[in-house]
Amino acid sequence: MTKRSILKVDDPMSHALPLVQCACRLAGPFGFVDEGRAQLSRRGVTGAVRRHDTPALYDWLMDVLSFQGIADRVAKQYLRAHGNVTWTDAARALRPRPDCPKLGGFWLFDDCRYEKGSATCSEPSHIAGCPLPRHELRNGRLNQTAYSLFLFMRDVAGGDFVGWIERQLADCAGLPEHERLTAMRAALVDPLRGVYGISDKVTTMALSSLLLGAGRRRRYWLEVGASFIVVDTLVHNWLHRTGILARFGADHPYGAACYRPNGCAELIERMAQRIDARAFNPTFPTAFPRFVQLAIWRYCSEGGLDACNGNRIHDLAPCDNVYCQLRSRCDRVTLHKTQQKHAILAA
């Protein structure tokens, strides 16, 4: 075997790309952009973006956030029974000068610690006049999120959330091409980290949906929305089990490392740059990291193909599914090698 052929076999990208392309063919959500646009249009979000209607966008975001950390069915039932906080509710509650100093502005709303069950907070002398307990949300964290998000959109975004997005993106437009998209994503996600109770995962999903679904005629929106990547345990574990992480020298535990250099998100982005997504849907952008990530997730998830997850594969053993269509290329790496060693030693 020649040196050239050895390098070709050992090239991690040559191993990874066929696996990812196959996942895209088998589980890719080919219509998810059109479906997302239709859903946002039905919800009035598309029109709200066109009108710069921040109250309507706030109401939509609050509904999205209500599904965080709980089964969709449970969240829907609770919302139907109890409703949600709207922009009008929060604006009306804060129109008179609030008693609590934390409600004086976004930068003051810190360490509220309102708890629904115990009806306590960090400012007990003001809780009688506080508007947060008036809303029958699922837990006190959501009450805090509702007012934190309202104050962000009012104070940081100046009451114009669409305008804020466009300013944030425009500020990064002059950067070199290889830095621009990363900077644009950060320009949106980083400030929103200051909103209480919103995870990066949910922020990323919501922004991607908004930019892809309602930004067809807005500069940078589609490009940035298509570039967002959400890494959950299913996506991370698939990259591990297939051997992609190991071959790139990128082994790491699930968590913050997934978004660091040479982590899961960066590897997916690099692979997506080599896959022409127009082969799956001619209306897609050429490079479509969000589509690639969703295809991997759908290949694994119980609600998708249910092919690669903890219910199908024991964490302490290699995958033994002889019917998996990726089997001939997959390295079938054990998920928890350390636990496996400990189990052997204990035996």
Low-confidence stretches: 1-9, 338-347
Largest sheet: none
* Shape call: globular
Share of β-strand residues:
under 5%
| Average pLDDT over all residues | 92
Order of helices and strands: HHHHHHHHHHHHHHHHH
> What is the helical fraction, as a range of percent?
40-55%
How many helical elements? 17
Structural domain tally: 2
Q: Please identify the structural class as seen in this structure.
A: mainly alpha
Question: What assembly state would you assign to the polypeptide chains in this entry?
Answer: single chain
Radius of gyration: 23 Å
Distance between the termini: 42 Å
User: How many strands in all?
Assistant: 0
Keywords:
2 domains; disordered C terminus; 347 residues; globular; mainly alpha; 17 helices
Write up what this structure looks like:
By secondary structure, this protein is an all-alpha fold. The chain has 17 helices and no strands. It has two domains: 3-30 and 231-346, no CATH class; 33-227, no CATH class. 53% of the residues lie in helices and 0% in strands. α11 packs antiparallel against α12. The radius of gyration is 23 Å and the shape is globular. It starts with a helix and ends with a helix. The relative contact order is 0.12. Mean pLDDT is 92; it is low at 1-9 and 338-347.
